[in-house]
Here is the input.
Amino acid sequence: MKMKIQMYARFERFWHWLQAFLIIVLLITGFEIHGVLKLLGFAKAHQVHIFCGWSLIILGVFAIFWHATTGEWKQYVPTLENLDKIARYYVCDIFKGEPHPHCKTREQKLNPLQRLAYLALKIFILPLQLLSGLWYYYYNQWPAMGLSGNLETAALVHTAAAFMVLAFLVIHTYLSTTGGTLFSYIKAMITGWEEVED
Amino acid sequence: MGLPSRKNCGACHFYGGGTDGVKHGDLDSSLFSPNKKLDVHMAVNGPNFSCTACHTNVNHHMAGRYSSDPAPVIHKLAMPKDYGNRISCESCHSSSPHKDSKLNDHTDKVACQTCHIPRYARGGVYTKMWWDWSTAGRFDENGKMIVKRAANGTIAYHTKKGDMRWAKDVKPDYAWYNGKMDYLSLADSFDDSKPVSLNRLEGSYDDPKARIFPFKIYLGKQVYDPARKTLVIPKLFGKKGSGAYWAEYDWNKAVAAGMREAGEPYSGKIGFVETKMFWPITHMVAPKEESLTCDECHSRNGRLAALAGFYLPGRDKSDWLDTLGWIMILLTLAGTIIHAAIRMASRNKQKKEQIK
Here is the structure.
């Protein structure tokens, strides 16, 4: 039996899509500042990048608050249980048309692999991006803050983190097409409603 | 007509080197009565500053000489009189005059002049960029002096002076500079296998007093002593028989006479060496709309492309990091494409089997 349940809360969807938008704009303007693209010009790219950066920080504060108060943070508690089955599914069973081994519910939205991947994004990649970004941004205040180091290090750490975010984005976008139909996961993230096994 | 002071000072300073605008690229007769586009400070339709508005002087120990005692730089709203006889842009504007804080962040490394004087010799007067003394002294078949003009009307060759090139509306060159400059003296020997710098700028990225500063680089060829590898002074003016170059057109005699008069030693040999000289650009501040845009510096081949030794966003990157990064992105893309292809192929196969 299949039934439809509300998988994602209104705030969660808003957060997801705004975050996606900001991260994509940050990647584009960031790579322009890095000299890879020529779209807006350095001045505009820099301005938009700083604006989106601060916006993402504010959004992040709200998201942390939401996760903390709703207890949704528990979704990311890592587990190794069944990890092998999930891995086998993606490299093998998915081609045979077999069902996903993880039984997605409101309480268990993320499969063990997703838990690990999203946790890595949230506690390693994005913080690295954020901290190196702030470090870079406040470069001129370093001496006053008693910090030292050089601009190149800040810039390179920030760039390295950006490559990781881009790689995450590629894989994440691709895996969003592996639901029941190509767009069923994306639809769920838009409407909030998802069809699951009873 | 401009202020009397600009006329007085300009009478000497606009004609340094003999003719209008020869030496400085930023001080020429167009500054007698400039408009705002040429110089926002001296503009007759603007503040109409005299030279002495900025150069508060004490017996012609003028404020504003690039020397061993550079002007103070870090301070808020002050007037030149507060700094004895040294002035700088910051004396009036402070070092954070912009609403955009990122621009103010630059003033510790980039001189105001760098962003605010995008080009020099903008007033229509040509400034001399190249002067090759080694070709001087040629006469035509009638024994007359030769004067050739370039297509733009400037003198390209003159028997008395040799070959020269002039330019106007020129993009400056840039160098780290802390306000101190050393001049090559007759006693200093140099490496003559490459162009000799007649003056040396002090400063580097690590010097907190140094800024990226705009310069006119004046190139040329002049007579020197190839044995001692030093500069020499030729005698230019004088009667026939005195050895003066402009009387006899013989460099050997001119240098012998010049060095004898100066009482300086020389080997008796002469040659020609390429020279270069840095002339700071500090006048002809353009309207704010014409300040350098970010891309002029923050791009792979921007104005600062040749200035090494520090990280400049948009210009610099780490080749290995970028290579690794893009390889990782290509691998993830390839991985997803292959995965998707297998998914599609196996789905088609399953469909066919179902139909059977």
Observations:
- Residues 28 and 37 of chain A are 8 Å apart (CA to CA).
- The radius of gyration of chain A is 19 Å.
- Chain A touches chain B at residues 33-35, 41-43, 46, 94-97, 139-140, 150-152, 155-156, 159-160, 162-163, 166-167, 170-171, 174, 177-178 (CB under 8 Å).
- Strands of chain A lie at 2-6, 193-197.
